[in-house]
Amino acid sequence: MKNNLLSYFFLILICLFGKTSAQTYQLTGNPVNTSGWDLVSSASINTDFIQLTQDIGDQYGAIKLQDPINLKYCDKWKVEFDFRIDGNGTAQYGRGDGFTFWYLANPPTGFVSGGGLGIPANASGLMVGFDIFNNSTEGQMSKIHVLYGTNNGLNNNIEYNNTAGSTFHSPDLNPTQPFVGSTYKHVEVNGETDPANTANWLIKIRIDGVLIVDQSFAPSGGAVGMATGYFGFSAATGGASARHSIKNAKIYIDKVPILTNTINPFVCVNPATGNGTVDLTSFQNQFVTNPANYTFSYFGPGGTPITNPSDYHYSTAATTITVVVKDPSSTLCDNGDGTIVLTPSPFAANDVTLTGCNNNNAGGAVFDLTSATLSSVPGSTAVFYNTMYDLNNHISPITNSSAFLSPAATIYAQVTTPQGCTDVAQITLALFPVVEVQEATLRACAIESSPSTGLFNLTTAPVTTQNGVVKEYYPSLTDALNGTNSIVTFNSYISPNGVVYIKVINGNGCYAIAKVNLIVIPQVFSNTLEDKIICMEDTTTLDAGPGFTAYEWSNGATTQTVSNIGVGTYWVKLKTGDCEVTQTVKVYASDQPVISSINISNTTVTVYATGGTAPYQYSTDGIKWQDSNEFNNIPRGDNHIYVKDAYDCNPIVISIVVPNIINVITPNGDGINDGIDYSALSGKQNLVFNVFDRYGALIHKADKTNRYRWDGTMAGRKVPTGSYWYSVSWDENDKKNTPITYAGWVLVKNRD
């Protein structure tokens, strides 16, 4: 009883829901969904409930599952439903008789008298009756009857079955649990294997949560060894009458879910032994996702337990193995629906072709022989040989089978299944067409800011004419072979003279590596274009020289030469082929000479110049020029001195004053030649007037206080008659503050 019931529940569960769920079959909805159920006799759908009988006499009604249930592996199960018994009854017998929930091997198919609660005579299985009519006293009652056996009581009445250990009759529950009324009562029937006797079921029955039945039941009569049965409900009224209704009927099951019911593995018979072996445990993960969570039992033909499933021997005949999956925690019921069907067939290995890449013309490809699909049998192994001679004699097997370097060739493999069957497979090693590449050279103009480098677009290197290829760029051959340090900026690669490598990969994943020479085209500058020095007021011509394909000057000119160029900085872009350089040229203003000082001695003027570019030329009128810096017989008063250097630029000019020279003074107070007076020069800068005696001693210093005069005295006393020397120096009021020095002598005649 127990095993068959659980198995069927689980089967229903998988079919209906496709996942583990406690609910397997039900009668719910409005109107009630009776798919998979059969209505018998007067049973009918009435909105959200099944009405088994009307409230009239001699009524019979039942509802049962259409398909039988195998309960072989059920450890626990549960059934819930709501029932209601109402109606007017009859004057003689009142209301009756009641209804039954059952699992029967031979369910009722037509009318059954009222005393059996809808259970026919000799019905075998589990029956739970809800009886409201006492056939002995013909009075009303509320009793539960349980029978786990065959209904053969008096008048086929379940109430009169009393097989020890297989039956139960509750006391009259009418005072506390009356079955008759307008409201529904909720029933739960739980069954599970009795640990003390696994042939028995522990049955618990609750009505509205109140435990009524809790005991172990042993199968008797036709229930012993019962394989399959039908679940259902039935009711009968007999001489009495009542309306019997049920709704919300649900059958619950917890059963180990399996992924598939039947596995058909490939198996073969070893010709040498006439049989084969298989590890049945190797298929566990095809039944459940986590085999370690379950235990497995295997049964051969006739239900014979297999004691060594990891090494099961079979012959040439087809064999079906039954697999029972059990939950060790007993949370889930056993599942015995799994089968392994062994149908031995001849084994033939597959001849295959492996195609590899002769990368970079290495002379062959590296083949992974283990990737060849030589057999569809899981767990098959292969040993590879270069020749059939080696295979037949089992000598010199290929040891590097996962990385076998070979040109195009044919090798052989001895393939062995887990069952020990063998066959020889031929492996053809073929080569994809090689990727054709050639060495290339790229030239790039020197980068002006870094003339030793050029900017290269590596994608323009003509290394192949094949279409549909992918290119990768590397700085070295080693990097190209290893696929490391790839050049990311291959469209704008800056490099000096050198080489790079391009890996060309075709659609088959094969590649060849091409060398690309990188040449930086040196900058070509003009050899004739040089800086120039000109006079500030002049212009000049700049010539970039011949040999360039294009010129572009900073002033917009596009000729080899440009004229009327004044002082400044200019550039010209010079194009040679596709390259262009920018050359800068400067036109400097020549340095003007500077008159550093002038010495005046009587009428002789000596000019000293610095700066500019020697030799200098000198002039007093800017027309007549001389090489000498000395001028004689310069008239007294204001004069001009002109100086120019070798560039013959506009001369510099300075104004000088040649003072009147007084050689004799007679300081006698007559107002004539009483002294030397240089107050006319007081507007000059840094004017100094000193008088010395013939020994060079300073005897007078003229300044603002004495108005740059000397009256032939020293410290207020007249100096002796004689000759005295004097010097006058000042800075001209020009932008250079040219220093002027004038020296002379004077005869002082003092009369006492």
UniProtKB/TrEMBL annotation:
It is found in: Membrane. The keyword DNA-binding does not apply. Residues 33-154 form the L-type lectin-like domain. GO terms for molecular function: D-mannose binding; hydrolase activity, hydrolyzing O-glycosyl compounds. GO terms for cellular component: COPII-coated ER to Golgi transport vesicle; membrane. The keyword Transmembrane applies. It comes from the Bacteria. Residues 1-22 form the signal peptide. Its main location: membrane. It is a single-pass type I membrane protein. One of its GO terms (biological process) is endoplasmic reticulum to Golgi vesicle-mediated transport. Gene3D superfamilies: 2.60.120.200. This is L-type lectin-like domain-containing protein. It comes from Chryseobacterium shandongense.
